[in-house]
């Protein structure tokens, strides 16, 4: 039985789309879209593609051949994903070239003798080759709290107290695979947004709105369908036949935006290279928290029968949550505290040092809406987090180089994003931390709980309002 296809995905020309429109029509409505016209200047589109429009495999071997990468075998399932192995880029390319010359003649879906079909996935290309500027992230995707944070708090030194608690170096990837490679049905990590740009080749996407995601789960809501094109058992997945999918073909040089919580399955229709980021921000922060709560409840239920013999049942649930989901409650909360402080400092600096009127400054509006969304999510956290967090001292935190890096990266990105052209143009480095600290009394300097963070945000807002009016968060 075929899938029910209920519609197509809109295509818009990125050169005619303004940031505010993208936010209103796609981020806020959580709707997918394909964006064209944004990749012409990318070095990747030149270096990585041959004149015939195929992946330039010899370029990869000679430039990046020694890199170690994760390769999925599309022919082998392992639990909910494809079996993965680590290999060098040159071995991966060697396998691809062998396959092509041995069996296929021209690019076609072909498996190795042992039935394997290799797909290079989740290559942290930007982290590894930061001097080779393969592309620039389109403006629509730059309000990226996840990668701002990981860029600042990523430590190789595991003993560091401030090490990055989120279990990944960054969420910027390159994918490469021959025709027929594919990605099983899934919703993205942390229920983040993602964007995926086709440097060469074509992909067929099937997407399912979150309002229908229960239809791809079994009757106990435990596991979801792996491959929507296999013979899906009606007994196991009774709702599957009712699901109505969006289908689209993404061409070379097109970028697809995949919103939060949309289940999707992807097929490379030709030999394909793509660039892919995951991110979250004020518009989907609540999705991240809701996923953590759901996964926490599942982790708890899974070990319920050993509760009585466990010294620290709650600690074990949180450890399992961190392993399975990539972060736990306190990792998320520490991220939120650091991120909120960076927002408060930038806001305070705009208003106090640079005498910006809030209503005249899109960047100040942006910072305020970030803080408003943080407050909303944090107020839901109180019940879960009372006991988990050890105290975070605002004064100590502000002195850390990692924090300064976060605050500067965020400030710089927002100034560019919001096209701020003030007569008082200034460098993010000028932000006066001492002055900011002065405005916080001792009772707000220590954050133990979500409620403390809300009080701190309100306190800074009230302080700014006293002198500058209208800082409503
Ligand atoms: O391109 C693919 O194979 C998968 C990409 C994907 O699932 C994503 O961007 O979330």
UniProtKB/TrEMBL annotation:
JmjC domain mapped to chain residues: 126-296
GO molecular function: 2-oxoglutarate-dependent dioxygenase activity; sequence-specific DNA binding
Top-level taxon in the UniProt lineage: Eukaryota
Cellular-component GO terms for this entry: cytoplasm; nucleus
GO biological process terms, semicolon-separated: positive regulation of translational termination
Family under the similarity heading: Belongs to the JARID1 histone demethylase family.
Name of this chain's protein: JmjC domain-containing protein
């Amino acid at each position: 039985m075929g899938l029910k296809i209920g519609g197509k995905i809109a295509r818009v020309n990125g050169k005619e789309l303004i940031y505010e429109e993208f936010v209103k029509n796609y981020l806020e409505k959580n709707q997918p879209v394909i964006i064209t016209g944004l990749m012409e200047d990318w070095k990747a589109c030149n270096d990585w593609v041959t004149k015939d429009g195929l992946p330039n495999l010899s370029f990869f071997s000679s430039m990046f051949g020694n890199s170690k990468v994760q390769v999925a075998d599309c022919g082998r399932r392992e639990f909910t994903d494809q079996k993965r192995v680590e290999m060098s880029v040159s071995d991966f390319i060697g396998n691809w070239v062998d396959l092509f010359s041995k069996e296929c003649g021209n690019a076609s879906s072909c498996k190795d003798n042992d039935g394997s079909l290799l797909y290079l996935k989740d290559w942290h290309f930007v982290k590894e080759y930061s001097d080779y500027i393969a592309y620039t992230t389109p403006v629509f995707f730059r309000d990226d709290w996840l990668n701002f944070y990981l860029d600042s708090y990523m430590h190789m030194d595991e003993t560091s107290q401030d090490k990055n608690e989120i279990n990944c170096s960054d969420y910027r990837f390159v994918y490469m695979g021959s025709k027929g490679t594919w990605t099983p049905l899934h919703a993205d990590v942390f229920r983040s947004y993602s964007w995926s740009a086709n440097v060469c080749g074509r992909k067929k996407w099937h997407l399912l709105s979150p309002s229908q995601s229960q239809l791809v789960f079994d009757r106990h809501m435990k596991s979801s369908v792996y491959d929507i094109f296999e013979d899906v058992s009606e007994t196991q997945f009774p709702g599957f036949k009712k699901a109505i999918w969006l289908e689209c073909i993404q061409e070379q040089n097109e970028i697809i935006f995949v919103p939060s919580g949309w289940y999707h399955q992807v097929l490379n229709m030709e030999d394909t290279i793509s660039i892919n980021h995951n991110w979250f921000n004020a518009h989907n922060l609540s999705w991240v928290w809701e996923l953590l709560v759901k996964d926490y409840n599942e982790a708890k239920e899974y070990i319920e029968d050993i509760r009585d013999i466990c010294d620290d049942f709650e600690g074990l649930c949180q450890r399992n949550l961190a392993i399975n989901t990539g972060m736990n409650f306190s990792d998320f909360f520490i991220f939120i505290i650091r991120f909120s402080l960076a927002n408060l400092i930038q806001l305070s600096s705009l208003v106090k040092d640079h005498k910006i009127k809030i209503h005249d400054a899109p960047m100040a509006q942006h910072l305020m809406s970030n803080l408003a969304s943080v407050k909303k999510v944090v107020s839901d956290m109180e019940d879960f987090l009372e006991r988990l967090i050890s105290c975070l001292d605002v004064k100590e935190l502000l002195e850390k180089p990692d924090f300064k890096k976060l605050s500067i990266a965020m400030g710089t990105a927002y100034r560019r994003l919001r096209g701020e052209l003030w007569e008082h143009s200034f460098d993010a480095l000028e932000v006066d931390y001492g002055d900011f600290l002065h405005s916080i009394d001792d009772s707000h300097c220590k954050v133990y709980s979500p409620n403390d963070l809300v009080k701190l945000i309100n306190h800074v807002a009230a302080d700014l309002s006293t002198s500058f009016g209208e800082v409503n968060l």
